[in-house]
Design brief:
The protein has about 500 residues and is α+β, with helices and mostly antiparallel strands. It has 15 helices and 20 strands. α1 packs parallel to α6 and α10 packs antiparallel against α11. The model has no long low-confidence stretch (mean pLDDT about 95).
Length: about 500
């Protein structure tokens, strides 16, 4: 039998693989994306949850990266308004730090210049009275508190939104399909997939390796991959703390010892604080990355250096959750993890009238631009496409401004509590009607499986969003793993065990 043939096969269902599949499918190409686990199950669900320019990259001289990132930040505010929201960051400056308020104000001024026209407030300096009233912030030797705006996002949902958008444009998007062999042909490649124990063979003129920290393993599947580049695996970890009282409404950018930056951000409707990230070399399997004891201690120390919780010091025992992601960065000659560039690096080679491209590095924020660059780079190897099209085009679920979306959710079924309707709006965007429709079509879909979780939502996650396990749903389709108690999580796990084969 002749194997099914595709123009492009994308390996990896993280943000970059999803973005390439979306862009290519929108140009009329026949695309297959294969992800060995779940979408965004590695680095793309373990970021700092930020859509940002990267303020510290200004100091490293990466002006082009900052400018592009801020341009893409403005783009995502328009195209994924249900997932990307502005957040004010406070930057406390102390006399013992090497960076003065004046040098930081100059950097923030350049940040404002690059982001002009995106509608976010300009940076500035808090009045002394307002700075003095900030809860828990240590006031000793405090010179100033500066402020600026960036954006936060649900990284896993953003990745899924890009992938589902690719599917609506004709791409075959498959999770739990591992690529096990890539064999060169005269004009492309034969690719073997493991579909849960069953082998499937396809052919593709072009293979794009977007496997994130696993790119080296994928390249080693074939002798026809581009020449290996110097790769640095860098682990970034975060800890989650209970939100103290009174709650923090703003995020903080903390200047730690040396050149590190640590963020402290409210998360999940202000119920928790996220503290991160680290930058440490990672050894071993990226799929087993976890927050080490040393990383926990470092982040707790960084928090306590700036904040004083009434009555006691925060310790490792206060941590309620952690996550860690491994970034595959193009190291060059730089070996210090915090200084390795986050700019992507693309390597390509020809295979007859086809080719193979590997993506190193990159940021969550700039995924759309990276996809354009990847397809453009394949042009000299024989890829013919229509022009770029993704700019200003809403992502899956992103076609309704946030205020309109929330007002629409309020008019949903009265049987669904208001807080659940709001959560659905900010999870599914303008696709919330797909979940509402399930409630109307089947009375059983209105069954509450866990507090605030209806069978309609679980069915939608399984049938539309390819969720196959409770972890898929609790950690990546939603963030209910921290909002439900053990009984609720067990009920979700039982539903998946009974209903998903």
């Amino acid at each position: 039998m002749t194997a099914e043939t595709f123009d492009i096969l994308v390996v990896g269902g993280g943000i970059h693989g999803a973005a390439v599949a979306r862009d290519a499918a929108g140009r009329g190409l026949k695309v297959l994306l294969a992800e060995k686990g779940d979408y965004a199950c590695a680095t793309s669900s373990a970021s700092s949850k930020l859509i940002h320019g990267g303020l510290r990259y200004l100091e490293q001289g990466e002006l082009g990266l900052v400018r592009e990132s801020l341009t893409e930040r403005a783009e995502l505010l328009k195209t994924a308004p249900h997932l990307v929201t502005p957040l004010r960051f406070l930057l406390p400056v102390y006399r013992w730090q090497k960076r003065s308020p004046w040098s930081l104000r100059a950097g923030l001024g350049l940040y404002d210049l690059f982001s002009r026209g995106d509608g976010l407030p300009a940076s500035g300096r808090l009045p002394r009275t307002e700075a003095a009233a900030l809860p828990r912030l240590r006031q000793e030797n405090l010179s100033a508190v500066l402020h600026y705006h960036d954006c936060r996002a649900d990284d896993a949902r953003l990745t899924l939104s890009v992938a589902l958008d690719a599917r609506t444009r004709g791409a075959d998007i498959l999770n739990r399909r591992a690529v096990t062999a890539i064999t060169p042909l005269e004009n492309g490649y034969a690719v073997e997939l493991d579909e849960r124990g069953r082998k499937r063979s396809v052919e593709a003129r072009f293979v794009i390796n977007a496997a994130g920290p696993f790119v080296a393993q994928v390249d080693r599947l074939t002798s026809a991959a581009p020449e290996p580049q110097h790769l640095e695996l860098v682990r970034g970890s975060h800890i989650v703390l209970p939100m103290p009282d009174p709650p923090a409404l703003d995020a903080y950018t903390l200047q730690d010892e040396g050149e590190r930056i640590v963020f402290v951000m409210p998360w999940l409707d202000g119920r928790f604080l996220v503290v991160g990230t680290t930058d440490v070399p990672h050894e071993g399997d990226p799929g087993t990355a976890h927050c080490s004891f040393e990383e926990k201690s470092y982040l707790v120390h960084a928090y306590n250096r700036y904040f004083a919780n009434p009555g006691r010091t925060v310790t490792e025992r206060d941590i309620v959750f952690t996550w860690s992601g491994v970034r595959a960065l193009h190291g060059g000659t730089e070996t210090k993890p915090s200084r390795i560039s986050r700019s992507p690096s693309l390597a390509a080679c020809a295979q007859g009238n086809g080719g193979f491209l590997t993506i190193y590095g990159g940021k969550l924020t700039t995924h759309r631009a990276l996809a354009e660059d990847a397809l453009l780079m394949l042009g000299p190897f024989g890829l013919e496409t229509s022009g770029a099209w993704t700019k200003n085009v809403p992502l899956y679920g992103g076609g309704m401004p946030r205020p309109t979306l929330l007002a629409h959710a309020e008019k949903g079924p009265a049987s669904v509590p208001p807080d659940t309707r709001q959560r659905w709006a900010l999870t599914y965007g303008d696709r919330i009607d797909d979940v509402f429709a399930r409630l109307d079509a089947n009375a059983a879909a209105a069954e509450a499986v866990a507090p605030g979780v209806f069978r309609a939502e679980l069915e939608h996650a399984a049938e539309v969003e390819d969720a196959m396990t409770a972890e898929d749903f609790l950690l990546r389709r939603t963030k209910l793993h921290l909002l439900l108690d053990q009984n609720g999580r067990d009920a979700i796990a039982e539903w998946f065990a009974k209903n998903i084969q």
